[in-house]
Write a structure and sequence with these properties.
alpha+beta; Phosphorylase Kinase, domain 1; Transferase(Phosphotransferase), domain 1
Length: about 290
């Protein structure tokens, strides 16, 4: 990957990219950088943990090595930025966008449009599965899959961001927002989500198709029920599915949700998202709140 060398003046003039208040970002600083006639986004790579730093660099180099395989809706790195004798930033193209979480919360956006974005996530995961099966890139997962890590550009295209946290080509499994020891599946005592025992850090799990699909299903359930489903009790989870079962939502979708806290492999629900109707969602949310 190309490396740019920035001066002290360049660093001092970087403009912080302000994120919406409802977007979590605890692991990096993000800046705008005017690069000739273009504007790039610079993301700082913290050096407080050498193993984590090295893993970020390895991840980004792997993305570059497989850029001919990885679809263009992944926001890919353009170059590294060297400052003070080591790589401190990586750059990507700046795109005018809205975060998916903000998009799903937008009362002015149609219900059908929101469903289309949720369905697109499933299509992306299906295409990644095809890549794993049909190319030599056998280890390729989003890993830290949640609403904040998708962007919608001004043309309505859905893109995957936070590319330095993906699972690729044997790198270290990243910590995921929805895959942790306190998640719904953990409280249910499910064993198919396997902890990574290679070090002593809490919250590391082996990233695979089951974990990506778990996170995707949680995003979908968050939207349907209007709450943080990963934080509810196991009893409430089943109660919520019983509420859904009284609507016109396709029973096969409910069966897929049931798999999340069983030992059966998870399934991709995108084919059944069209069965979700606005009136059903309002009925589900009203019954949930009224319980």
């Amino acid at each position: 990957m190309n490396i740019k060398y920035l001066s002290n003046n360049d660093i001092e003039n970087l403009e912080s990219l302000r994120l919406p208040d409802n977007i979590s970002n605890s692991e990096s600083d993000i800046f705008l950088f005017k690069n000739n006639k273009e504007i790039d986004v610079l993301k700082r790579i913290y050096f407080f943990d050498k193993n984590k730093y090295d893993n970020k660099i390895r991840t980004l180099l792997s993305v570059e090595n497989y850029t001919h395989i990885i679809p263009n809706y992944f926001i890919k790195p353009k170059y590294f930025v060297m400052y003070d004798n080591f790589i401190q930033y990586w750059a990507s193209q700046y795109i005018n966008n809205f975060n998916l979480k903000k998009t799903l919360d937008d009362d002015n956006l149609s219900f059908e449009k929101k469903k289309s974005y949720l369905k697109k996530i499933g299509i992306i995961l299906e295409e990644m599965n095809w890549i794993r099966k049909s190319t030599h890139l056998k280890d390729f997962y989003i890993g830290d899959l949640h609403e904040d890590n998708f962007l919608v550009d001004l043309q309505g295209n859905l893109m995957v961001c936070d590319i330095d946290s993906i699972k690729i080509n044997g790198n270290k499994s990243p910590v995921s927002k929805y895959i942790n020891p306190f998640a719904l599946f953990s409280r249910a005592g499910v064993n198919k989500y396997m902890e990574d025992k290679s070090n002593n850090r809490v919250g590391d799990y082996i990233i695979n198709q089951n974990t990506d699909l778990y996170c995707y299903n949680i995003i979908l359930l968050n939207f349907i029920f209007g709450c943080k489903v990963n934080d509810i009790s196991v009893k409430d989870f089943y109660d919520f599915l019983n509420i859904m079962d009284s609507t016109n939502v396709d029973y096969r979708l409910i069966e897929i949700f049931n798999k999340l806290i069983s030992e059966e492999d998870n399934s991709n629900p995108y084919n059944f998202i069209d069965s979700i109707d606005y009136r059903d969602v309002m009925k589900i949310r009203t019954k949930r709140i009224g319980r």
